[in-house]
Amino acid sequence: MELSKRQQQILDIVRAEGPITGEQIADQLGLTRATLRPDLAILTMAGFLEARPRVGYFYAGKKTGQIFGDQLRKMLVREYKAVPINIAENTSVYDAIVTMFMEDVGSLFVVREGGQLVGVVSRKDLLKVAIGNQDTREVPVSLAMTRMPNIVTVTGDDTVYDAAKKLIEYQIDSCPVVRPLDETGRNLEVIGRFTKTTIAKVFVELGENREV
Ligand code: ADP
What we know:
212 residues, alpha+beta, Arc Repressor Mutant, subunit A, CBS-domain, 4-stranded mixed sheet, two-stranded antiparallel ribbon, elongated, UCP026546_HTH-CBS, Diverse_CBS-Domain, transcription regulation, CBS_dom
């Protein structure tokens, strides 16, 4: 985050004299409280300052790294998920490979009618069949996929941070974003895709965000 000159001045004042009211900061800078309001709001939202009612502003002392972490924990999978590419269980390994090329994805979700998740098939799952002696047109993806209940999933309400941690922990490239299909919670509907590319996009977005 790049601070404006005025925001930097505000931080210096609060660091030296906080707790201090908005009025007092404005006085020191020879500005009105109204002129200062947007800067104070930005500095508070970004975590540099803390505002306490009837007391004033404190320096929150957050380092850039902390602010980055806070941002990641505020971002929800729901807002960043990609469109899932689903196939049926009886799709051949050959057709799954063609779908991967056409859709430009590294994993496909295997679903029943109604969107119920039954499996995940990745590049390596398909390569394994392809380098074996089987005919890829004859083998259904259901024989190559990782199946439920062994699938690692995320929900729209999970944070981008938690979802990214799951990909690292389980050493996978993608997770289906799901919601329960019924009360049991065991049957899941696929509503999106969270991948390492999603994380790269979020990373670039945070890097571009220079005002706040
Ligand atoms: P790649 O095969 O391109 O390395 P992954 O690392 O995602 O892709 O897949 C590695 C293995 O993990 C594959 O056998 C795949 O079926 C399985 N897998 C992929 N995604 C998941 C997931 N969300 N939950 C459980 N297993 C998965």
